[in-house]
Amino acid sequence: MNYNVNEKGYYGEFGGAYIPEMLYPNVEELRQNYLKVMAEPEFQKEFDQLLKDYVGRPSPLYFAKRLSEKYNTKIYLKREDLNHTGAHKINNTIGQILMAKRLGKHRIIAETGAGQHGVATATVCALMGLECIVYMGEIDIARQAPNVARMKMLGATVVPALSGSRTLKDATNEAIRDWINNPVNTHYIIGSAIGPHPYPDMVTKFQSVISEEIKWQLKEHEGRENPDYVVACIGGGSNAAGTYYHYLHEDDVNIIAVEAAGLGVDSGESAATSVLGKEGIIHGCKTLLMQTNDGQITEPYSISAGLDYPGVGPMHAHLCKTGRAEFMAITDDDAMKAGLKLCELEGIIPAIESSHALAIFEQKTFKPDDIVVMSLSGRGDKDLNTYINYFNL
Amino acid sequence: MNRINKKLKEDKKLLSIYFTAGYPNINDTVSIIQDLEKNGIDMIEIGLPFSDPLADGPTIQASSTQALKNGMTSEVLFNQLKDIRQSVQIPLIIMGYFNPMFQYGVEAFCKKCQEIGIDGLIIPDLPVDVYHEKYQAIFEKYGLINVFLITPQTSDERIRYIDSISNGFIYMVSSASTTGAKVGFGEEQTKYFERIGNMNLNNPQIIGFGISNNQTFTQATQYAKGAIIGSAFVKHVTNQGINTLDKFVNSVLNND
């Protein structure tokens, strides 16, 4: 079984480029060039250098001793939270800003939900001196004020998305509409492993540095490259895609994907796409999608803004359908408790997205000698208000 | 012969109108269609609303959101249209995004269209190659014409390819934009219209996006077989309701 994208842009039956003709020249230009550009030694060198000197890679692979003792297994945390700007998002924005420069684009647009991808995009635009416009739902702007301020300090223009539910899905629609209206000079930096081909593959490849490092780091710790499990939380799925990438075809490595169950998978307030979604088309790709019987896209819910998306990247839809990955769903409450537990046991305040992944240890029992590598996709600074309100701190 | 092909053979410039089904009220669909035909419109695009219309600007987005709130679905629309051919003769096209059709089942959707007397479909986010590989045979089985878009950025090679797959008309998007974003044409557009005109394509072209009144209709039809008005019509309905459609149509056709 092949879990990578095929030459037509599909993962099994998922993926493709379901875009209006107005976007075709942009997406086609990218499709024809992205692999060529990424293979250029100069590009590689610049990308690696920035990841090292600017982002602070490699991020540590940390053996979480007290957490391991509590759950009687061996848990390693891949510390993406220690990256510049506080999450894995910057791996992709560094790659895509270099791509945009190679393609001669000088205007950058992006969508953002919680603001992490917006901040990561604004950051690299400041670094490269490029114009940056970030679309963000009006509701998210109100509840993520610190990240809005960060983007502004970094020189970005934050445009409120006023349509639909005024959250991430609508911000993505607005960014796509901007791209339709600015077809020549603009590059759209999509923040997750979604969108029309080649985006899911390109984003996955930029994020694959995560599993590339895990391999040699785990070898140093344990004398072997392959853990028994790799675990990551999934919204659109970019940190998960990067965490799994080099293990997709390693049969001895189990893959676990953790979705947000919100108030409960059957509560009507959930973002567990693998359970609640059906095959459909969102933001340019065929994937699993939460929708009505009539094919209207529905509103997801999660306490975590980063997992609050009605679809999932096409690669993950394929991993789900083929059974290559085990999908688990974690509620708001269980995620919040797991986040606090990590603070107490390891002195690390995780992003609420990552807390969802941490919560699986309460639900699933691992063997004492199992090696479980979990992506700690981001740090919890941005979520402080949510933690304060939830725990009455 | 399909009503679209027959209409395209008429010796006149065509005016086509887009409206959002289920807007402003859920049951306005049939009366809008009848009224437009009575006032001399040549062809109608019935918009099947979608929650996330990527290619549309604020006007059509808002009408779609309202139509969905009003309860519009594929099934409701088909029910409203089931007797439409008893009163309406002009070509009818359903325009909508792919996901609702995909959920309905592409073949079931096409079959229903044929039963009702729908002549064609415009699906902006169904790529030409996917249509060609997976759905063209189904569309043809049910006698439906699928209409593709081209834009000023579409290469000549791709236009030739689209022309070869098309069997009705080509929807010429006047400028790189979402619907309702720009009004009127500049030099850039007229150059593009001329370029396409000189390609001698097999399928006639109808220009859409940026057409709102007699002046832009006249300008567009200098270069093409016809023109499509969408956002400007939806705006008219929003502001003045559905009882003065004659005024709108006359102002476009007769400049009064």
Automatic annotation (TrEMBL), chain A:
Which pathway does the record list?
Amino-acid biosynthesis; L-tryptophan biosynthesis; L-tryptophan from chorismate: step 5/5
SUPFAM superfamilies from the UniProt entry: Tryptophan synthase beta subunit-like PLP-dependent enzymes
Return the Gene3D superfamilies for the record. Answer: 3.40.50.1100
Residues annotated as carrying N6-(pyridoxal phosphate)lysine in the record are 89
Needs which cofactor?
Answer: pyridoxal 5'-phosphate
Q: Which reaction does it catalyse?
A: (1S,2R)-1-C-(indol-3-yl)glycerol 3-phosphate + L-serine = D-glyceraldehyde 3-phosphate + L-tryptophan + H2O
Q: Which family does it belong to?
A: Belongs to the TrpB family.
Q: What is this protein called?
A: Tryptophan synthase beta chain
Q: Which gene encodes it?
A: trpB
From TrEMBL, chain B:
Which Pfam families does the record match to this protein? Answer: Trp_syntA
Write the Enzyme Commission number(s) for this entry.
4.2.1.20
Where along the chain is the active site annotated? 45 (proton acceptor), 56 (proton acceptor)
The record's section on InterPro entries has: Aldolase_TIM, RibuloseP-bd_barrel, Trp_synthase_alpha_AS, Trp_synthase_suA
Cite the entry's keywords alphabetically.
Amino-acid biosynthesis, Aromatic amino acid biosynthesis, Lyase, Tryptophan biosynthesis
Q: In which pathway does it act?
A: Amino-acid biosynthesis; L-tryptophan biosynthesis; L-tryptophan from chorismate: step 5/5
GO MF: tryptophan synthase activity
Q: Which reaction does it catalyse?
A: (1S,2R)-1-C-(indol-3-yl)glycerol 3-phosphate + L-serine = D-glyceraldehyde 3-phosphate + L-tryptophan + H2O
Q: Tell me the domain of life.
A: Bacteria
Biological role: The alpha subunit is responsible for the aldol cleavage of indoleglycerol phosphate to indole and glyceraldehyde 3-phosphate.
Which family does the record assign?
Belongs to the TrpA family.
Q: How does it assemble?
A: Tetramer of two alpha and two beta chains.
- What is the protein name stated in its UniProt record? Tryptophan synthase alpha chain
